[in-house]
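Researcher: Go.
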Amino acid sequence: MKYMNANEILPVCLVEELQKYIQAGYLYIPAKAEQHKAWGEVSGYRKELEDRNKKIISEYKQGVSMEELADYYRLSVYAVRKIIYQK
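Model: Structure:
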């Protein structure tokens, strides 16, 4: 999250109104519900994990053992098992 100086982006009257409630502190302003992005959506990491998990499932169905998959993807056998049986 990038912090911004209120004096640089808000009108003076709004800064003065906010200063009645908080001064020299940090104020989090959440995004509107319709603009909220799910975890990993902005960075693309969610898609990356989905692709990896599909690959793990496919390789398992082709006969690769859970232990081999865990070693290759640097995951625990428990994590691989969760991925395979998630659906």
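Model: The radius of gyration is 23 Å.
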